[in-house]
Structure formats: structure tokens, C-alpha cells
Write a structure and sequence with these properties.
The chain has helices spanning 2-5, 69-75, 82-89, 94-115, 199-203, 217-224, and strands at 13-16, 22-26, 33-39, 42-48, 53-59, 126-129, 146-149, 152-153, 157-165, 168-175. It has 231 residues and is an alpha+beta fold. It has one domain: 4'-phosphopantetheinyl transferase domain (Ribosomal Protein L22, Chain A, Alpha-Beta Complex), CATH 3.90.470.20.
């Protein structure tokens, strides 16, 4: 971020809207958008030339509190449209049913985070239509999915569905139309997969934002003196 915007690392500032959507506060007056999701073994980050971007990552868990896939899907039925329920229930195996459930969940989270609305009561008003000709599996990059809200096509969005690895699926939602200054307008069909970033890479060129006396050694030692709790 600091490199792209020509700012000092310690001067970059992020804030959140009233509904919790993160945004770049400093430098100001930028159209750069970002979003973060964490679940399973990963934290996923997505950005866009537009402020409206959302991401969600989900681990394809097999543990469902001893419920079958159908029982689990039925317990979450209020969050799905009739067509989504039909698609989930029609899958031939337990694993495929749950993969389809997590696929829809990622898509719904991604669009709600892109708009900044957050979780809403009537998730079933968002009706995602997937193309069965697309092979949704690790290595895939699916962009043909569309969404209807209350029966009306919402054509302003594009969805990028991928897998972080064999156990984690992800979805990014962003606006189709980019600002003129956005370099990605040159190749709108470019496939941008997730890259795994190490913690060391995140700390490269990092600067202290909130300095503490004695480099916080005293605070750390006081913390370590506290008795450990048994969970």
C-alpha cells in the first residue's frame, strides 16, 4: 500500500464505516477498495480500483455436528433461495452438497461485504445462479456466476470464484466498471488468483506506529506473570 501510493508505511491509515466495512482513510480521496475475510486456516485479502469490493473464504469442513449434508442444509434453508436449495440438494454426494453450500455462502458474504451492508435477515432475497458447465474445483477461476435480488438481475457485479487450496474456497465480488485510471481496464479478462503471503513478507519495511516505553518489554513481562487459565 505504501509503495503503490508513495506514502510512508507508518502514515497509512485504515478505518471502518459504521457497519464495519474497512476503507483506506489516509491517503484520502482514493478510489482504492479493500476487504478482508478470515476462516479456517487463512486470512484472505482482496482489493480493487473501486471502493466496492468484498471477499469471503470458507474451509470445506466435513464436521457438521453429526448432521447429514441434507440435515445441515435444511437447518440453514432460510439463508438460501429455492433455486439454491434445489442445486445443493441435487448434488450426488455428501461432499458435493456441502461444497455447493459453502460456495453459495462465500458468494453471499462477498456481495454483502462489497456493498458494506453486512449480514442481513433475508439472505434468501439474494439468488445466485451458477453455470453448471463450469468445473468448480481447486484450480478453477469462475466468473460466470450472476445474482438476482428480489428477482431482479444485479448486473453491476462480477464474481471471481476460486480455491485457496483443496480445503478452502473463496469468492470475490467487485464492480464491473472500473475508473478510467485503473490499469486493470487494459485486461478485464485477467485471472488474478490468490497468492500466499508469509508473515515476514507482511512485516517487510514495517515501521512502529504506536511506540511504547522500553519497547513494551515491561508490559510483556507483566503479562507473562499472570496465572494461566485452564480451558
Amino acid at each position: 500500500m505504501a509503495e503503490d501510493h508513495g506514502e510512508q508505511w507508518k502514515l497509512i491509515k485504515f478505518e471502518r464505516t459504521e457497519r464495519g466495512k474497512p476503507f483506506l482513510a489516509i491517503p484520502a480521496d482514493t478510489k482504492f477498495g479493500l476487504n478482508v475475510s478470515h476462516q479456517g486456516d487463512y486470512v484472505a485479502f482482496a482489493s480493487s480500483c473501486s471502493s466496492k469490493v468484498g471477499v469471503d473464504v470458507m474451509r470445506l469442513d466435513t464436521e457438521r455436528n453429526h448432521k447429514t449434508a441434507d440435515e445441515y442444509i435444511n437447518s440453514m434453508a432460510k439463508s438460501a433461495s429455492p433455486e439454491e436449495l434445489r442445486m445443493m440438494r441435487s448434488q450426488p454426494t455428501e461432499a458435493m452438497k456441502m461444497t455447493m453450500f459453502y460456495r453459495y455462502w462465500c458468494l453471499k458474504e462477498a456481495i454483502l461485504k462489497a456493498t458494506g451492508v453486512g449480514i442481513v435477515a433475508d439472505l434468501n432475497s439474494l439468488d445466485f445462479r451458477v453455470n453448471l458447465q463450469d468445473r468448480y474445483r481447486p484450480g478453477a477461476f469462475v466468473t460466470t456466476t450472476t445474482v438476482l435480488e428480489d428477482g431482479r438481475l444485479q448486473d453491476q457485479w462480477i464474481f471471481e470464484e476460486t480455491f485457496v487450496d483443496g480445503k478452502h474456497s473463496a469468492a470475490v465480488c467487485k464492480e464491473k466498471k472500473f475508473p478510467r485510471e485503473c490499469v486493470f481496464r487494459q485486461d478485464p479478462e485477467a485471472k488474478i488468483f490468490f497468492s500466499k503471503i508469509t508473515f515476514d513478507a507482511l512485516l517487510e519495511n514495517a515501521e512502529i506506529v504506536n511506540p511504547m516505553p522500553n519497547d513494551a518489554v515491561d508490559v510483556f513481562e507483566d503479562f507473562m506473570k499472570k496465572p494461566r487459565k485452564t480451558f
